[in-house]
Task: structure prediction
Amino acid sequence: MALREDINSALKQAMRDRAADRLSTLRLIMAAIKDRDIAARGEGEEGGGVSDADILSILAKMVKQRQESARTYEEGGRLDLAERELSEITIIEEFLPKQLDADEIVEAVKVAVAEVGAESIRDMGKVMGALKAKYTGQMDFGKVGPMVKDQLANG
Result:
């Protein structure tokens, strides 16, 4: 729950600093987390809310949505809106762990394949599960999937 507390304290600091743009983005983050809390309660899960891993996945999803929106705005010639999306990405990424570079991702895939003892494409789910458990928020799993597939096919 440390991540939730970090976001909350950043929200309070933004209020004190009267940083309107930062404050609105942090409020969006907290609203998304509360939505997930409510959904988890509806499914009968107990506890003090969603875990840090869930919050990381929420943040990663928010970044991806904003990247797509910024691209769409740029294509439509609305650079002012694209800039706003990109500034929101910067604020959200403050709470995400450092992204792995290409070499680190390749190494992580090799380690995960070895750890789960994957031998064929049928083991792809196990490998992806291991990667998601260890590297949530640190890599784009949409891009990692084909890499895992290649590794297992050529393995």
